[in-house]
Amino acid sequence: MKKKASKPWIALTAITAVVLAVCIAAIPITSQFSSVISVALNAKTQEVIPDPEATVHFTSNYDSEEELVAFEKELCESIEAEGATLLVNNDSTLPLAQGTRFTTFSQSSYNLLYGGTGSGQVSAEDAVTLKDALEEAFGEGSVNPQQWDFYANCGYTRVNADTTGGSQSQYRINEVPWSEYTEELQNTWPEYGDVALVVLARSGGEGADLPSGLPELEDYMTDGDYLRLCREEIDMFTNLQQLKEQGVFKKIVVLLNSSNALQLDFLDSYGVDAVLWIGDVGMTGINGVADILAGNVNPSGRIVDTFLKDNHSSPAMQNFGAFNYTNGADYEVATAQNNTDPGVVKCNEDYVVYQEGIYVGYRYYETRYEDYVLNRGNAGDYDYAADVAFPFGYGLSYTTFAYSNFTVEDRGDTFEVGVDVTNTGSVDGKHTVQIYFQSPYTQYDMENGVEKAAVELCGFDKKMIAAGATEHYTITVDKEDLTSYDANNAKTYILEDGDYYFTVGTDAHNAVNNILAAKGADAARMSGTGDASLAVKWNNPTFDKTTYAVSGVTGNAITNLFDNADLNKYEGAEDQQITYLSRSDWQGTFPAGPVSLRITEQMWADGLSHDEADRAALVERYKEMYYPDATMPEMGVAGDLSANDFAEADADDPAWSDLIKQIPYSEMTNVIYNGFHLTQPVPSIGLPGTLDENGPQGFTKSLMGGSSAMAYTSEDVMAATFNLEIIENIGKCIGEDFLHAPSDTGTVYAGIYGPGANIHRTPYCGRNFEYYSEDGWLSGQIAAVEVAAIQDRGVYVFTKHFALNDQEEGRYGISTWSNEQAIRELYLEGFEGSVAKGGGMGVMSSFNRIGVVWSGAHHGLMTGILRDEWGMDGAAITDCSVMASFMDYRLGVLAGQDLWDGYSMGMATLDGLENDPAIVNAVQRAVKNIAYSVTHSQAMNIGNATVRPITPWWQMTLYVITGVMAVLTAGSVVMLVRSRRQKPDTE
Fold it and tell me: Which residues cross the membrane (predicted)?
């Protein structure tokens, strides 16, 4: 028998050995995710020894942070005041008189929707409540306190899907059942019976689209559709209508608190007197809503989506979702709804087909309507009024406006459009003039598959007009905006010969009616009336396929880049042709349901394969296509150039190559690999690391455990202002927030993930709050101003999600199939505004595939469009790339991707390729783009400082613990051996 003294040493040896093993295993894993961990822990990763003679490139325009915050609160309120849109105002219900008393209805009246969830989520801790806003505008005690307290304690709360990795089945409206309103509570209503104020809110966010018809949710929402009234809301409206008839309530006013357009088939059914769309209101925006209700502000917003009576009437809804390739099992495909399942890296099971082509939103409804009126295009017995509740661009005011003297002058590359607007009412008001054009739809178009919308927005301006006064508007329209993309014959942008129409319209439908009136259309077939005097015809005498076949920014030729996203042009897919919706035959081409697709061997080889051998072969193809004559460049060359020398250098300065060749390969790959919410320092050129953060609704750190700065309204409310001065102020204030952001680590915030420039393809996209509109052109105009303003404050912008990321379902690797005309005319226009017009230095590529090629590895997208056509100089970052093998570093850098948002564990595919000429050239190009963005940001306020990477505290702690455990384990083993060598116990 051994002495009992050995037992403690056995236990200690086991414990220390296990801890040591865990630490040893943790070191390589945590090293791969060091940037993610450091950002989450706010850990210092670099030491910066300041340059005492540094030139400060960017300074704040505010003397104090308090001054900035005060302005931002006013700004958020003014955004909502000018973006909120009055849709219904029966019998001039609004504005309401001082002293009006309200009883609020719906749990969302207490729990307002201030913004979306996920990467765009902002803190609403200090947000203004509806009660506070109403009592500020109408007086203390104007809101029923018992009803307010009831909602505070009722236990019913709207439920969104999980922040970034949820599913549609998690959404819940959770409205209070009518039976919960006690008799005691109902007895308070007459005293506060001037207005029953109903708030209808629908939340959305990253990771899950809104349910558009899930059978498992039919107990919670009508037909499992989140954007329809649920049973409890129907009961609420039914009872409110009865109470109004009984005189308990005088008026019913509805606030639509949602960036996802609710289905508005109910508005004529329940005695509703007024409806105001308010979107997501941000921190102080509800004050602007209260000011509209009180008449302190005359509403001037215009909706940036078509609001429908039937959300499913849209052709895009027929192919909305993630669909499985029919033969996916033969290829062992896998799905990952989001980046929340670390065991799934294949992500190649799902696809979606944009079968509707260009006919999204008003481009569908107004175009089919015109063809019905003119009895052409097999439009059928189309009933516009049965589909559309309020057209794109619609909005009411407390005053009235009249147009006159509409003129259009051809100025060569532009048109000068003029119109007089008279305020014919009794109160002052702001008014947005909207200019639309119509292209001729010709035999050439029908033969070559070029589609044309009946009207397209091409200009706008907004002014305050005093009651009784007239203001003249002069708006410049670029002739380039009248072009169409001919993907099948000219394979570039064309300006056809024929008659074009310009009109000024109160909305898209009014614009069509003006043109129809000018054409002498049958008024009996029209929905609404038009004014022929507000439409001007311009004739283009010649077919032009050369003027716009080159980029106006770079001078490079423009031709097809997305044939591999169109199955009708895809090699080996001749039996899987897509019938795109065409106005040449509406009924014959309208989508009948989801398109059924199968994987072909070519699709597998071009990007769907998850086999490393297949991917390596694809890398070789990329090198041959994009770097065929690459020679080995120099790396790690001794030199005295520093990043600070390039703070004001143009991107085409030849000295950049001398700077970049000073960087060794390992430093370059470290920068490319580790871009999660930061850029890495590059000691060899003195380039500091930076911190980057999300920001479609304002500068936010909420995903990483911090708080946000000012939470502005959702992007659609911003766009609905049609006020570029407000947009510029938003951008500059977001940039100011970065300048004022405290950094405990010595690393400055210099980059922003946002704004979002995808479009509202359908009302159900989870991230519509992050995107401006259904209209790509309008999105581009707004993005251009916001991005330029943010960058003016020294913050580089990654406009997201580039491109065709118009849904959340299946987003992680989904194959998105479309055609070149739709891609260019709808889905890229918002980004084009950001980059080509706004000078944006960056984009964030998307999770999805374009065809079967991941967006970041699509050369046509990342180089052909982004660099060659739009002339972008800065860095393109990926969406979060942790665990994503399909977002391959080799393919990405060869195609034009620069920076990865998170290290892909075990996928360091650039390692060991320092002798590969094509790869090294691509890597140097990527690092130059990253360096350009950083050197042109506030990060360079440090001047010619010394930058040294340091081991963060958490990593040092892990090393220390590992060392201590190694010593303890060794010591305990020695003691255990010694104890066992003792003589046996003689007891």
Answer: 953-977
Return the structure tokens found at 320. 């909305």
The CATH class that applies to domain 85-298 reads alpha beta
Beta bridge partners of 576: none
- Side-chain half-sphere CA neighbours of 603 within 13 A: 30
For residue 546, what are its two tokens? 């050369």
User: d(Cα 727, Cα 288) in Å, to the nearest integer?
Assistant: 16
Q: For residue 880, which phi and psi values (nearest 5 degrees)?
A: -50, 120
Confidence at residue 705, expressed as pLDDT on a 0 to 100 scale: 43
Q: Would 45-62+609-949 and 85-298 be classified into the same CATH topology?
A: no
For CA atoms 117, 834, 730, 284, the dihedral sign is: negative
Determine the Cα–Cα distance for residues 677 and 700; give it in Å rounded to an integer.
Answer: 12
List the domain boundaries for the chain: 6-31+953-980, 45-62+609-949, 85-298, 392-559
d(CA 162, CA 121): 12
CB-CB contact of 890 with 926 (8 Å): no
Fold of 45-62+609-949: TIM Barrel (3.20.20)
Cβ atoms of 454 and 366 closer than 8 Å: yes
C-alpha separations of 726 from 392, 697, 711, 821 in Å: 21, 14, 15, 32
Yes or no: say if 314 and 95 are a contact pair by the CB < 8 Å rule.
Answer: no
The backbone torsions φ and ψ at residue 180, rounded to the nearest 5 degrees and listed phi first, read -80, -15
Q: List pLDDT tens digits, range 497-521.
A: 999 999 999 999 999 999 999 999 9
Amino acid at 873: D
Dig out the tokens for 162 from the structure.
């999980």
Torsion of CA 855, 803, 601, 339, to 10 degrees: 70
Distance CA 169, CA 522 (A): 47
- DSSP for 319-374 reads G-S-EE-TTGGGGT----SSTT-TT-----SEEEE-TTTT--THHHHHHHHHHHHT
Q: Which CATH class is domain 392-559?
A: mainly beta
Q: What angle do CA 363, 367, 371 make, to 5 degrees?
A: 170
Distance CA 868, CA 860 (A): 9
The Cα–Cα gap between 952 and 964 comes to 18
* 858 cis-preceded (ω within 30 degrees of 0): no
As given in the structure block, the two tokens for residue 698 are: 């304002």
Q: Nearest to residue 454, comparing CAs of 514, 413, 541, 497?
A: 514
Q: Is 914 helix (H, G, I), strand (E, B) or coil?
A: coil
Helix (H) or strand (E) holding 980: helix 953-981
Instruction: Spell out the alpha helix ranges (H) of 565-687.
Output: 586-589, 601-603, 612-626, 655-660, 665-673
* Dist CA 987 CA 981 (whole Å): 17
472 strand-pairing partners = 420
Q: How many CB atoms lie within 10 A of CB 724?
A: 17
Q: Which residue ranges in the chain fall short of pLDDT 70?
A: 1-5, 31-32, 119-124, 162-165, 336-346, 700-709, 742-745, 904-906, 982-987
Residues 787/834, Cβ–Cβ less than 8 Å: yes
Query: Rounded to whole angstroms, how far apart are CA atoms 451 and 435?
Result: 21
pTM above 0.70, yes or no: yes
